[in-house]
Amino acid sequence: MLIGENTRSAIFLDRDGVLNALVQDHRSGKSESPLHTGDVRLVPGAVDAVRRLRRAGYVLVGVTNQPAAAKGVIEMNQLLEVHARVVSLLGYEGAALDAWILCLHHPEGIVPELTKVCECRKPRPGMLLEAAKKLNI
Question: Which residue in 16, 39, 48, 98 is the catalytic one?
Fold first, then answer.
């Protein structure tokens, strides 16, 4: 199939700092992804923006680098619980996305199965290409 042939238009949205607010990392002092479900807050205006994009007819896909487990900062189950909280808050507000794709890898991680240079980690196009195949976008 050629791109554009019977495909739908999509918008790709990052998660942290776009849909949910960043939090201050107590170790580095930098703004980072939340590491606890209680720290998850939606960015003001994110819900309205998602609803407007949905009404405009776009397929909405979340694509997000989530390297905290690869770096050994948190356990995988905790990372997935934080992500589920973001998804839940958006859904509760009527702003669910059509799909989410997460890259869990990091080239400088400490967890062997998650430590690698991959095609899915942004800015590489792997997550976008995966979504294009799965969602016909």
Answer: 16
Give CA separation, 100 vs 29, 103, 131, in Å: 28, 10, 9
pTM for the predicted model, two decimal places: 0.91
Distance CA 128, CA 120 (A): 8
The SS3 assignment for 60 reads: strand
Residue 123 preceded by cis peptide, ω within 30: yes
Q: Catalytic residue at 16?
A: yes
Its sign, for the CA torsion 34, 36, 41, 42, is: positive
Closest CA to 38 of 97, 90, 81: 81
- Tell me the pLDDT tens digit for each residue of 80-126: 999 999 999 999 999 999 999 999 999 999 999 999 999 999 999 99
Active-site annotation holds for 14: yes
- Can you tell me the distance from the alpha carbon of 68 to that of 44, in angstroms, rounded to the nearest whole number? 24
